[in-house]
């Protein structure tokens, strides 16, 4: 009896392990019969999670695409971007409606709110009659053709998936998304956000070192090293000034990053502006104290020369 239960338990574990492998998408999977005629013979590459991209380009710069992934409900989209960012790009988005009617449309991504994602707009040139959406065995296939002025090589591509079925062509916020650079000549892909990730790290590192290291050290010098007059003042002023310059550079990097990605972080921005104002006030105090110190030294020198 114990051996039988153990065998059943082992079988269930094996099925649980093998089930995802059986349902996961691969390039070896056959296309649905409705797509075989127009979309056979395409190159294929896994691009992200369970997303599989099949594609081909002809001499007329017409790109044929079949994008597939696992699907239960919601929408799936593939965007074409000039800089790897969502804002300013155009995307092909498909979904299966509540009445089992397939939908696929081009969307112009003019902003990050649903009202700024406009249906039937964008810079992609296509023939709406050549677009198809098929849902089969918990998998969705978006098939479409686009015409470009020149052959695509390394292209910024956006991939996203939403969990809610669009109503009146209004997309809900995506559940997950990514940005990649896909090479349509070799089939290779890489992360498309390395520049902005680097700028984000630069912004954080500069501000952390300036406001979190240098400025506290400068304050400690002013508090505990006054017996080394006037050396403490020059050390304090120099450290604080360098810290302010580095902090200002970090804020400039943050402003540049915000203008690029339009991040919705009002609390972070407010805190940054508040800290910057305090830094500017400190620089003003530094200039005032330095001028007073110069006048003090000058008066001492005059007194010394008179005697």
UniProtKB/TrEMBL annotation:
Localization in the cell: Membrane
Superkingdom of the organism of origin: Eukaryota
Transmembrane intervals: 208-225, 232-258, 270-291
Gene3D superfamilies: 1.20.120.1770
Domain Cytochrome b561: residue ranges: 165-307
Recorded GO CC terms: membrane
Domain DOMON: 49-162
Keyword Membrane part of the UniProt annotation: yes
Predominant location: membrane
UniProt keyword list: Electron transport, Membrane, Signal, Transmembrane, Transmembrane helix, Transport
Xref: InterPro entries: Cyt_b561/ferric_Rdtase_TM (IPR006593), DOH_DOMON (IPR045266), DOMON_domain (IPR005018)
Segment forming the signal sequence: 1-24
Tagged with keyword Electron transport: yes
Stated name of the protein: Cytochrome b561 and DOMON domain-containing protein
Protein's organism: Dichanthelium oligosanthes
